[in-house]
Design brief:
Elements: H1 8-19, H2 22-48, H3 54-87, H4 97-112, H5 116-125, E1 142-143, H6 146-159, H7 161-165, E2 167-170, E3 177-181, E4 204-208, E5 210-216, E6 219-221, H8 222-227, H9 232-254, H10 269-273, E7 287-292, H11 299-308, E8 318-321, H12 323-330, E9 341-342, E10 352-353, E11 356-360, E12 374-377, H13 379-382, E13 383-396, E14 403-416, E15 422-429
Parallel strand pairs: 2-13, 7-15, 8-11
Antiparallel strand pairs: 1-13, 3-4, 5-14, 6-14, 8-12, 9-10, 10-11, 12-15, 13-14
Helix pairs in contact: 1-2, 1-3, 2-3, 3-6, 4-5, 6-9
């Protein structure tokens, strides 16, 4: 017999999400998970009886959507809490008097275009610096005030998934190169008076990370800038954030390294082998573990994936997949009928699969033949993002009158730091030997 589903549950979940209380969301998620398991058991009985109730299917779909929403909300809340801890809330309370004066002068220049000389003087003499740079750019742009730059960065951490999980490093040069120790030092046993010939030493290899320049150019009319009481910093930060977040999110996952960061999915063995030897990562490609099925994930494949990392490289490791793949994994069971996925049981913790944390990382592909829908490992140790220059703004009132254009730019790099900390999970069937 059909069991109708009350929409009150969904409404309650959305209300809890709006409150952004991690503890309350964890409670709601666990309640929702119990409801999901009961509904799935009901659906399994229907399928065994060769009967498919549309109402039950709809119920499952709504609960799945709610679980996904709550899981993402908990991750977002935890990220914001971590950001507040690192940045002191970003409310300007920690600004120096010189930084406050510079912020006010920047806002006045932003509205009217006047005061350029004063602005440059404050940047030079007052030691004003944005998050990653000092002074003004030689092209006539001006370094954004530190609080405005921090606001942009915080927003990109929230919406650009890789910035939540990878390491982020500020650099001051034209790019960034790292030396890798490939080891190779030899040793030998000798007698008391035996000769001791020279042994081989370690080999060092250099790797250069890919950088690119990202920009946005929002516009406002002169009249709006002259008369409006809007928060200039908030408006421009929002405009820039949309474009920067979209571009960065694409590059950090699948960027080809040409005038942009090289994405984490671009280090498989085939792609690396096609590069000139000087451009390959010194430590090799990211190793792969197959799912064991030609077009699907399997419980055994996930177990193989998790245990493929050596013990000393599994510290801080987690699973990463997009939202659709999360839904697929959420329905998977082991041989005893137990679900592999489990919700968090307290605030500040993510959901878990086989006891391993799992995070949502948009941009990864869906489950399909030969795709890599899941990455496992410590992303902070495996992938690094480089911020070269803080936000720079160039005010252009001439090109498109009566609009004033605000050319805003930033230089960003990224690439694989150490493949030993990561594993790809490729969708592929197990190959069998010929038996010869």
């Amino acid at each position: 017999m059909s069991k109708h589903f009350s929409p009150a549950l969904i409404g309650g979940i959305l209300a809890v999400r709006a409150e952004a209380d991690p503890a309350a969301m964890v409670v709601a998620l666990n309640n929702d998970w119990q409801t999901f398991k009961a509904a799935q058991a009901e659906k399994d009985k229907e399928l065994k009886a060769k009967f498919d109730d549309v109402v039950t299917t709809e119920k499952l779909g709504k609960i799945e959507a709610s679980i996904g929403t709550l899981t993402a909300a908990i991750d977002d809340a935890n990220t914001r809490l971590a950001g507040l801890s690192l940045n002191g809330g970003g409310d300007g309370d920690n600004l120096t008097e010189a930084e406050r004066e510079y912020t006010a002068a920047f806002a006045d220049w932003f509205r009217t275009g006047e005061g350029e000389r004063s602005l440059k003087s404050k940047a030079r003499d007052g030691g004003i610096k944005a998050a990653y740079s000092v002074g003004s750019d030689p092209d006539g742009g001006y370094t954004a005030p530190i609080e405005w730059d921090r606001t942009i960065t915080d927003q990109r951490i929230e919406v650009s998934p890789m910035r939540r999980f990878a390491s982020v490093q500020s650099v001051s040069g034209q790019g960034f190169k790292k030396l890798y120790n490939l080891h190779g030092t030899d040793a030998a046993w000798v007698g008391e008076t035996a000769a001791r010939p020279q042994t081989e030493g370690s080999t060092l290899a250099e790797y250069e990370f890919a950088f690119g320049e990202i920009y946005a150019m929002p516009a406002a009319t002169e009249r709006v800038l002259e008369d409006s009481e809007i928060d200039i910093a908030a408006w421009l930060a929002g405009e820039v954030n949309i474009e920067f977040a979209r571009q960065e999110g694409l590059a950090f996952i699948n960027g080809d390294g040409v005038n942009k960061p090289k994405g984490v999915l671009r280090y498989d063995a085939t792609t690396e082998a096609a590069l000139p030897s000087a451009q390959r990562h010194p430590l090799g490609p990211i190793k792969e573990v197959i799912t064991g099925a030609a077009a699907a994930l399997t419980p055994d494949g996930l177990i193989d994936l998790i245990y493929d990392l050596p013990e000393d490289r599994s510290v801080g490791a987690a699973l990463y997949a997009n939202r659709k793949t999360h839904a697929t994994i959420r329905k998977m069971k082991d041989g005893d009928g137990n679900y592999l996925w489990q919700p968090p049981f307290q605030a500040s913790q993510p959901a878990a699969v086989l006891g391993t944390p799992i995070h949502e990382l948009s941009g990864l592909p869906d489950v399909a033949a030969n795709a890599i829908p899941v990455i496992y490992g410590n992303m902070a140790e495996g992938y690094r993002i480089f911020d070269r220059v803080g936000m720079s703004v160039l005010r252009d009132p001439y090109t498109n009158k009566p609009y004033v254009l605000f050319y805003t730019r930033k230089r960003v790099g990224g690439g694989l730091w150490n493949p030993e900390w990561l594993r790809y999970h490729r969708v592929a069937a197990a190959t069998t030997g010929s038996g010869d």
